Amino acid sequence: MSESLALVGATGAVGSIVRRLLEERSFPCKRIKFLASSRSAGTQLAFCGEMHTVEELRPEAFDGVDLVIASTPDEVSAEFVPWAKERGAIVVDESGYWRMDPTVPLIVPEVNPQAVADHAGVIASPNCSTTQMVVAMKPLHDAATIRRLIVSSYQAASGAGVAGERDLSNGARAALDENDYQYQAFAHPLAFNVIPQIGSSKHEGYTSEEMKMVHETHKIFNDSSIRICPTCVRVPVTNCHSESILVETERKLTVAEATELFEAAPGIKVVDDLSSGKYPMPLSCSGDDAVFIGRIREDLSSDNGLAFWCVSDNLRKGAATNAVQIAELLAARNAAV
């Protein structure tokens, strides 16, 4: 059990879900405090039947705190994490700032829970598009060793935060009314459109979002030999990222074997009946913590290829739930000492 837990970014979209999950899952801690920017300080939040006042994020706020769960922009994480570490707290961080630091484990509990033992005060949670992909990869990689992977992501507006959701809603209304709308979160109209760029230009025609999927996957599996070709696309969907994934394995996996592996894996739900029109879709997967798999089929273009469709709630498993699960790993490890 943690004596004291601090939730940083408590009033944000992901922070609000983390708060709800901590309550629903009865996270073991004696005291909790909620931290946010000076703009949100003083806000009242309900937790476990009591009202709590949000405190301003500053160094002294971490006095007496054992564990921190944080959902903030990268630049905020870079500033506050040293404050928390100096005061002896362990930080579970959802920003991208610490993910590729060699001293910081990057963890998805269904994939590499053992890495939690290697932390030096900070544990990172991966990018949402990476998280659902590696959960899906894990049972296949363990059984037949993935050598190559091609992934195309169809990422929801909520991946760009509240501003992204607002852009989609307001932009769609404006388009239907044949009015102009000035998008805030996206460089191009998202309503009735798809944008084949997420992030900045990064490496030989790949974007920063795409390269995150490559580098983070290699780190999580501790295997840089897995060849990955990602394409990340923003689509006019409010919530839940979808991914079309093709894996090539060292030995052939049949559809029946892969389905059995998926069904037995933690955190995965299989919905796969093409003839009945049953497969994962954002509308049916939103609000769930699982990674949903469907459209499982053999690749027609390679001997050891397997294709499938993957959908997951990017605000939950892609962010909030994964961070809470990491915190639960830490709590269980402390209880066992």
Q: Explain this structure to me?
A:
- The chain is α/β, with parallel strands linked by helices and 337 residues long.
- 32% of the residues lie in helices and 26% in strands.
- The protein is built from eight helices and 16 strands.
- It has helices spanning 13-24, 74-86, 128-144, 161-176, 208-221, 255-264, 282-285, 316-336; strands at residues 2-8, 29-36, 44-47, 50-53, 55-56, 67-70, 90-93, 122-124, 146-155, 201-203, 206-207, 227-234, 241-249, 268-270, 291-298, 305-312.
- The strands form four sheets. The chain has a six-stranded parallel β-sheet with strand order 5-2-1-6-7-8, with helices on both faces. Strands 12-9-13-16-15-14 form a six-stranded mixed β-sheet.
- β15 (291-298) and β16 (305-312) form a beta hairpin.
- The model has no long low-confidence stretch (mean pLDDT 96).
- Tally of strands: 16
Shape from CA axes? globular
Q: Please tell me the total number of domains.
A: 2
**What CATH architecture of the largest domain do you see?**
2-Layer Sandwich
Q: What string, H for helix and E for strand, traces the elements in order? A: EHEEEEEHEEHEHEEHEEHEHEEH
Class from helix and strand fractions: alpha/beta
- Mean of all residue-level pLDDT scores: 96
Distance between the amino and carboxyl termini: 11 Å
Helix content: 25-40%
Can you summarize the main beta sheet?
6 strands, parallel
CATH class group of the largest domain: Alpha Beta
What's the alpha carbon Rg, rounded to whole Å? 20 Å
Strand order of the largest sheet: 5-2-1-6-7-8
- The CATH superfamily of the largest domain is Dihydrodipicolinate Reductase, domain 2
Q: Tally the helices.
A: 8
CATH topology of the largest domain: Dihydrodipicolinate Reductase, domain 2
Strand content: 25-35%
